[in-house]
Write a structure and sequence with these properties.
GO molecular function (chain A): ABC-type quaternary ammonium compound transporting activity; ATP binding; ATP hydrolysis activity
Enzyme class (chain A): translocase
Distance between the termini of chain A: 38 Å
Pfam families (chain A): ABC_tran
Order of helices and strands of chain B: HHHHHHHHHH
Oligomer: heterodimer
CATH class of chain A: Alpha Beta
CATH class of chain B: Mainly Alpha
Largest interface: A-B, 30 and 24 residues
CATH architecture of chain A: 3-Layer(aba) Sandwich
Shape of chain A: globular
Domain ABC transporter (chain A): 2-237
Radius of gyration of chain A: 20 Å
Largest sheet of chain B: none
EC number (chain A): 7.6.2.9
Amino acid sequence: MIEFRSVGKQFADGTRALADFSLTIPSHSTTVLVGPSGCGKTTLLRSINRMEDPTEGQILIDDHDIARRDPIQLRRSIGYVMQHAGLLPHRRVIDNVATQLRLNGVPKAEARRRSSEMLETVGLGSSLHRKYPSQLSGGQQQRVGVARALVHDPNILLMDEPFSAVDPIVRAELRDELLRLQQELKKTIVFVTHDIEEAFALGDQVVVLKTGGEIAQVGSPVDLLARPAEAFVEEFIGLQQGGRRLRVQDAYGRRIVVDEHGRPAGVLE
Amino acid sequence: MNWVVANADRLGDLLWQHTWISAIAIGLGFVLALVVGWSAYILRSSHRKAVRQLSGVIISASSLLYTVPSLPLFVILPTILGLGWLNPLNVLIALVIYAFALMVRGVVDALHAVPDTVRDSSIACGFNKLQLGLYVMLPLAAPVMLATLRVVSVSTVSLLSIGALIGVENLGSLFTNGFNRNFPTEIITGVVLTIALALLFDLVLLMAGRVLMPWQSALRAAGES
């Protein structure tokens, strides 16, 4: 469980990113932080592994205040995937994946063996293991990033818009892959995105944020759709644009679902 | 050609003298620049404005050393250092200063050229500061550093020739001697050997880069496709 208690963050130049932010992120499920740019979602994510330190309040992981933990050790115990995979261009794919194992003192041979297994798990065959990151496609690099974040079996996986730099088809593939992995691994995933579709597809709990890190609503995707707390949420999740207001029409004896503009969205079974 | 064969021993001595002085000057200049340049790079990311300005001052002052004319420096150094006129150390130290001056900015630029995303994700993985410097920043800055080092190398080999004017023996002695005796063969021999040595240094650096940075050719190939 990750707990934010009245967390505030003011940067050295005086800009305020967060004020009095409180949130509980349950274990073994996926929490998505979603909001427009400037809502502080990345700052929140980066404060979980102490890439940023809050100026006020506390963050607790399993009831322990992380301010008392050594940041280096803390980071080595957490998995982190970012928008651009951020792989080391001078190391082979397999050694990139082995990074955190090696930092945690696992011997090289064992680290490589486990990395190789993890690469297979994320769908990258052995022909790619000895290549350099630049020889892979964007989607493949992102898979390597995911493998690197999972190989040391962390409890917590932080993901900062990990799929936003790849094309829509690959993005959908990676999203399905993550859902499959999560079913198996049951990690505590904190996922940051500005894409509400992605938030609904992945999140057990979705946190809608407003500018300045203020929480508009916390709930499951169903909660948000059925009971949006305010106009901001309605607009952000698309209830006001018509794309999500669906109606049923009869056609050729079947029931077709159409959106507000009458464009067909699917068939009702 | 007869003259070259007859003087092979002396030419060999001069070539050797030229090689070791240049090599040491390039090496020391690089190490000094690495230390000063890296410090300036760290200071530049400080959140205090005065510290950031200090970084700029260090880089500019170091680079300005290159504008000191070489001949006066060769003449003044023995007096300052008190080493005696014919001591090759005078010339060596002057060359270290020039190599350092050329190299400093190259080091800072090379470190800045390391992509922020790679740096950031490495910190997230849990590299400590020393590991980050050694295993991430240094290898990734190396290609840009090597490019500057190649310029420094050629410049050092040619600059050393001027040292012959104050009597320190090296390939440049073939020019001074040849001019005094109005003997073109000796001058041409000096020019050819100096260029050959500069090319050899460049080749060694290029090969070292290929061996130490195999990932660079993968990157180039990816860029072309």
